[in-house]
Specification:
Number of strands: 17
Shape: elongated
Structural class: alpha+beta
Radius of gyration: 33 Å
Number of helices: 16
Distance between the termini: 59 Å
Strand order of the largest sheet: 16-15-14-11-13-12-17
InterPro entries: DUF6461
Largest sheet: 7 strands, antiparallel
């Protein structure tokens, strides 16, 4: 895990408990749900007597986890300055349970039980002075213990104890949460909690651990003082209930409390010491208004005009980061972020992994100065990108070079994708290394290039057959004869869509006759019979036949046949063996790039048979009773 980044458990707890400092917690030293300021004063003095000894028993590692719950998140994840918003009403943990129970479950039952094991003996040995005036909370005479007999109970001992307490007396945990919020700011306890014995210049882990241990001790001490007054049965007012309630109340409070002084500097030092290059990460980000960005803070306002992209058609450097212009207005795009320790090889040179300029539509390089570092991929509306794309750039200031690459911006039916490369480099002029999409030309004020020859067929990438299929078209043939050529019975029909839930859906072909076009179109969902040379020879005796096969491993096969002969067959690449008869059908198609190979293959099929596949054809092939099982005769 990257330095300073919260675990999934910490994030889940923070989301579930943020704002759970209640109106009780904001009430100050006055009356608190029946607890007067005088009683609060006495309670604070009682808690102060035992807080240090309890804090010493909290293990450092889990203490640090709890202590980091209030760590300021980057601005992309919170409000101004990354702080959570104002406290709201006490939130329960779902299914009628308290915020304490929700917090414990977010931390995890093993986590809670580890702290129970560390504190159980100390709690059993506590001899707190009585605090007259605390509410005398009494449970109903009869209540259900809620033990799950005969089933798998994921809750550990501490969570089960709080679950029982919530069922017997739900206001008890609410009172502990409220008292913890007030006592944390009480003059008697505030010095103990703020200092927590942290030496100057301590490491981030120690600061977080002392902070967490002190507040866990506060929660446990308050729970120990409050719960016995409830006159509960031993099975409910037990050490597990006291520790569980105290831990949960501390977590609820810390999720919205500030970190102690010095934590920010220590966290930055830790992050820098653990930061390693190179790194590569992939995730998705929400696009809004044709934009997303790479920023050290929130997405800035005021970058709304396309004039900002007039220089290069793709990226605009602004204070704090860079804005990237997308083709789609709203939605999600895939982004790979690469952070390097040194400049990458020039795009024209061979590289491991086969990265090539030809695989992208637009490639632009710009310079950018980081003021603080740890930039994240962000959305204009504040929606966090995938966790892998957050705080990935070096956690220090400096000059950097950005290489932004894009593809798919012109394709309404194809998912766009981007890469952002970052490496240290002195400022240099912007450089457009590749400019081939029409959007980039429009933004730069340049004449648009002609539409790609296969552009009208790229809709296939957003279709039900986008992952793996074979499309075969036969000109001048009868539908029944085509079905028989595949080894199927024309009389037995069903739809492709009806096969989705079958355990064995292989070996089906759907055939659509289009008399007005004089062709039969055959579709196979994740099938490949149409690429079989023997079947293609048989089909070609009925009329010119062409097929395009592809699968999830990017394997393709284009086959052209006429009069019982295979004219060309093989992987659709620059090495495709097309003889004199087949070569004209490939004219003007770029086979040196692996991009859009399925659409390019379907274009060759269209040229060879005189008919191009259309979305309506595929809809009919998918939903109509046009499918036959190969081998049924």
């Amino acid at each position: 895990m990257g330095a300073g980044r919260m675990t999934d458990e910490e994030q889940s707890l923070r989301r579930s408990a943020r704002g759970a400092q209640t109106e009780f917690g904001r009430a100050g030293p006055g009356r608190l749900g029946g607890v007067s300021g005088e009683v609060t004063q006495v309670l604070a003095e009682v808690v102060a007597e035992v807080l240090p000894q309890l804090a010493e028993r909290v293990p450092a590692v889990p203490a640090a986890v709890v202590g980091r719950l209030g760590a300021a998140a980057p601005a992309v994840r919170g409000g101004p300055g990354g702080r959570p918003g104002p406290a709201g009403p006490l939130r329960r943990g779902g299914s009628g349970s308290s915020a304490v129970l929700g917090a414990l479950r977010a931390l995890g039952a093993p986590f809670a039980d580890r702290l129970l094991g560390a504190l159980e003996l100390a709690v059993d040995g506590l001899r707190l002075a009585p605090v007259p005036g605390l509410p005398d909370l009494r449970p109903p005479r009869r209540f259900e213990v809620d033990e799950r007999v005969g089933t798998t109970d994921p809750d550990g001992e501490a969570v089960r104890a709080v679950r029982r307490l919530d069922r017997a007396l739900p206001e008890a945990t609410e009172l502990v949460v409220a008292l913890v919020a007030v006592l944390a700011r009480h003059p008697v306890l505030e010095p103990l909690l703020a200092d927590a014995g942290v030496p100057p210049g301590a490491a981030e882990a120690e600061i977080a651990a002392r902070h967490g241990a002190a507040h866990v001790a506060l929660g446990v001490a308050v729970a120990a003082a409050v719960l016995p007054t409830a006159a509960l049965a031993r099975s409910v007012a037990s050490a597990p209930a006291v520790v569980g309630t105290g831990l949960g109340a501390a977590a609820v409070y810390l999720s919205g409390a500030p970190m102690p002084p010095g934590h920010g500097e220590a966290l930055l030092a830790r992050r820098r010491s653990e930061y390693r290059l190179p790194r590569s990460c992939v995730g998705s980000v929400q696009v809004r208004g044709h934009r997303f960005g790479l920023f050290e803070g929130p997405f800035p306002a005021g970058v709304d005009a396309d004039a900002a992209f007039a220089a290069n058609g793709l990226v605009a450097v602004v204070p704090g980061g860079a804005v990237i212009r997308t083709g789609q207005a709203d939605g999600s795009v895939r982004v790979r972020l690469r952070v390097l320790a040194e400049p990458p090889p020039p795009p024209e040179s061979p590289r491991p992994g086969g990265w090539s300029l030809r695989d992208w539509d637009e490639v632009v390089e710009v310079s950018w100065h980081a003021d603080v570092g740890s930039a994240s991929v962000v959305s204009p509306d504040g929606t966090p990108a995938a966790a892998a794309l957050r705080e990935q750039t070096p956690p220090w200031s400096g000059d950097h070079r950005l290489r932004v690459v894009a593809r798919g911006r012109d394709d309404a039916n194809r998912t766009e994708s981007y890469e952002v490369w970052v490496w240290p480099a002195p400022p240099a002029p912007p450089l457009v290394r590749r400019r081939t999409d029409r959007l980039g030309h429009r933004l730069r004020g340049e004449p648009e290039p002609p539409a790609p020859t296969e552009g009208h067929l790229r809709w296939i990438y957003a279709s039900v057959l986008r992952e793996a299929a074979t499309i075969t078209i036969v000109a001048g043939a009868d539908r029944a004869d085509v079905v028989r050529a595949f080894g199927a019975d024309p009389g037995h029909r069903r739809s492709l869509v009806s096969l989705i839930d079958l355990p064995d859906r292989d070996g089906w072909v759907a055939a659509l006759a289009l008399p007005e076009a004089g062709v039969v179109v055959v579709a196979e969902d994740n099938g490949f019979a149409g690429s079989d040379p023997a079947i293609m020879r048989t089909l070609s005796r009925l009329g010119p036949a062409a097929s395009m096969f592809w699968n999830v491993n990017a394997v393709t096969r284009l086959t052209l046949a006429r009069d019982g002969d295979i004219l060309a067959a093989g992987e659709l690449s620059q090495d495709y063996a097309a003889g004199p008869e087949a070569a004209p059908y490939l004219a003007g198609i770029d086979l040196t790039s692996g991009r859009h190979r399925v659409a390019k293959g379907l274009l060759v099929v269209e040229r060879f048979t005189g008919y191009g596949l259309r979305p309506d054809d595929l809809d009919r092939l998918w939903t109509g009773d046009l499918a036959h099982r190969i081998g049924d005769r």
